[in-house]
C-alpha cells in the first residue's frame, strides 16, 4: 500500500485526493462545504471521499488510511474537531465517524495549518534537528513550528501568532496581528482609506483588488500595504527572536496568490533585525505547494506515522 487519502476541509470547500509517498496528488476532487448543518458538512466530506475512491478504482482496504486537516482546535488523540469558527462543528467526532464508515482505514486528524506545515517541511527535505516555521496569511493568520521533526504544540494553542498584539492605540488598546494583516483586514483597511479620500467606487473592494492596485502603485493601496507589511514583518521578527528558525515558509491565500510579496516583506523586515540576525532574511521563502499544502500534508502524515513524523512535542 503506497497511497493514502489526504483531505483538506475549509469553510467553502472540501478537497480530497490520493497522495503518494513522495507527495504527488492523484485523483483530486473538490466539493462545496457551504452549510450551517454539521451533519451535512460531514456528508459532503463522505461524498468527496467516495468520489475519489470511485474514480481511482481503489478500495479502502488498499489504502494506508485517511489524513484530514481542519481549521481550528482539534483533539488529535480522539479525532474530534473541538472548535471551528467557519464550520458548524463543535466537539464533532470526525475520526470515529470515518473509522465507522471505513473500518479498514486508520484516521489521522489535525489542524490544517499543521498539515500544511508538515508537507512543506517534508517536501523540502529539511533536517530533523533543525527548527522549521510555516506562517499562513489568509482569512486568518497562524503558524506551525516543527522541531526535531515534530510539531511544537505547547499546552495546545501554540502557533496562534495571529493573536499576538500589535499597533495598539488609545482608541483601541487590544489589536492583534490578524486584525491588521489578514486578508479581511487588508480589505477593511482599504475600504476605510478610500472612504476618507472620497474615492469613487467602480468595483467591489476585495483583498485581490487592493493588492492589484498596490502593485500598480495606487496611492491608497500603497498606504494600506505599507502598514500591513510592517505589521507582518514585526510578527516574523518576533518569531525570529523567539525561535530563530532555520527556515520560515510563508503560505496562505494572500501569499500564494501574490508570491512577490516575499521580497517586500524581506525589505521591511531587514531594518528590524540586528546585524547578527540579518541572515534570517535569506531563510524566508514562499510555499512550494501553495493551495495543496494542507491536502498533501494530510496524506503524507499517513506515510510517515510509523517513523515518528510530526509527533507532538
Automatic annotation (TrEMBL):
Known Gene3D superfamilies for this protein? 3.30.420.40
What domain of life does the native source organism fall in?
Bacteria
Question: Which Pfam families does the record match to this protein?
Answer: ROK
User: SUPFAM superfamilies given for it?
Assistant: Actin-like ATPase domain
Among CDD domains, the record links this protein to:
ASKHA_ATPase_ROK
Q: Please give the family membership noted in the entry.
A: Belongs to the ROK (NagC/XylR) family.
Name the UniProt record assigns to this protein: Glucokinase
Please report the organism this UniProt entry assigns to the protein.
Guptibacillus hwajinpoensis
Amino acid at each position: 500500500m503506497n497511497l493514502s487519502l489526504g483531505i483538506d476541509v475549509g469553510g467553502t470547500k472540501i478537497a480530497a485526493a490520493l497522495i503518494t509517498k513522495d507527495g504527488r496528488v492523484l485523483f483530486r476532487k473538490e466539493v462545496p462545504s457551504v452549510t450551517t448543518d454539521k451533519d451535512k458538512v460531514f456528508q459532503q466530506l463522505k461524498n468527496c471521499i467516495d468520489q475519489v475512491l470511485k474514480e481511482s478504482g481503489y478500495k479502502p482496504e488498499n489504502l494506508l488510511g485517511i489524513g484530514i486537516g481542519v481549521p481550528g482546535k482539534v483533539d488529535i488523540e480522539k479525532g474530534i474537531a473541538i472548535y471551528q469558527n467557519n464550520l458548524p462543528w463543535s466537539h464533532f467526532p470526525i475520526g470515529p465517524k470515518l473509522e465507522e464508515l471505513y473500518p479498514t482505514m486508520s484516521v489521522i486528524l489535525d489542524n490544517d495549518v499543521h498539515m500544511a506545515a508538515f508537507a512543506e517541511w517534508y517536501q523540502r527535505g529539511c533536517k530533523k534537528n533543525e527548527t522549521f516555521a510555516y506562517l499562513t496569511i489568509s482569512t486568518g493568520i497562524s503558524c506551525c513550528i516543527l522541531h526535531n521533526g515534530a510539531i511544537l504544540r505547547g499546552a495546545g494553542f501554540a502557533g496562534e501568532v495571529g493573536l499576538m498584539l500589535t499597533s495598539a492605540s488609545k482608541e483601541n488598546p487590544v489589536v492583534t496581528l490578524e486584525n491588521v494583516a489578514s486578508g479581511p483586514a487588508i480589505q477593511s483597511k482599504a475600504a476605510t482609506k478610500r472612504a476618507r479620500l472620497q474615492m469613487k467606487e467602480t468595483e467591489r473592494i476585495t483583498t485581490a483588488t487592493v493588492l492589484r492596485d498596490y502593485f500598480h502603485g495606487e496611492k491608497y493601496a500603497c498606504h494600506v500595504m505599507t502598514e500591513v507589511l510592517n505589521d507582518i514583518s514585526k510578527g516574523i521578527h518576533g518569531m525570529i527572536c523567539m525561535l530563530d528558525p532555520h527556515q520560515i515558509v510563508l503560505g496562505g491565500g494572500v501569499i500564494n496568490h501574490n508570491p512577490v510579496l516575499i521580497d517586500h516583506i524581506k525589505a521591511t523586515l531587514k531594518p528590524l533585525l540586528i546585524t547578527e540576525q540579518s541572515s534570517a532574511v535569506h531563510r524566508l521563502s514562499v510555499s512550494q505547494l501553495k493551495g495543496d499544502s494542507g491536502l498533501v500534508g494530510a496524506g503524507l502524515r499517513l506515510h510517515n506515522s510509523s517513523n515518528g513524523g510530526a509527533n507532538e512535542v
